Amino acid sequence: MLLQILQKKTLCRLWLLSQALFFSIPTMAQQFTDRIKINQLGFYPNAPKVAIIAGDGYAASAFYITSTNLRDTFLIGELPASTKGSAYSKTITRLIDFSLLTKEGSYVVLVPGLGHSHVFKIGNDIFAEASTATLKGFYYQRSSMSLEPKYAGKWHRSAGHPDTVVYVHPSAATAKRPAGTIISSPYGWYDAGDYNKYIVNSGITMGTLLSAFENYPAYFKKLKANIPES
Prior knowledge:
five-stranded antiparallel beta sheet
């Protein structure tokens, strides 16, 4: 009787161990991997969508676009049969295309035996945060004006370099504006490790901002960047 009880306990333990191994193997195979390179900001619904798998050594023949918890599959694609190297790198890569997926949401790319990618999103506003941050970057770089706490937060500061009394350098002197002439040249942006101002730098900055507004007026009229002008 005692022998039968011990045998049953042993069989029970072996069964539990086998189940643990059975369920842990897929989990181990589905851990995050940085070998799947992807645009972490995401993609517009109807835009091309690609990812690059770096390296080799896995037997999978397909890739999956799944939910972030790996439970739901939204698209299955075939991995390229051939791998391709580069003249500039020895790393072998595969390019996968999942442009057919247009539904908005959060996903990962999963390759069995390799792992899953960073989470990425598909949506119409995926670049909104980056766009706002880029525009506000110009605000933080402003010279000759203070950055108020309600706009700049912990990066608030007093105005620097008023530049209302600027002496013309001999190298920039002309007959009508000799060296030592005092001019006023406030505002602009800090763009390097010094405080000099150049018309080329100012021109490309203004050109970039005005071109963006000219091409996308409706977008910028609605944009709230938390700067004095918005």
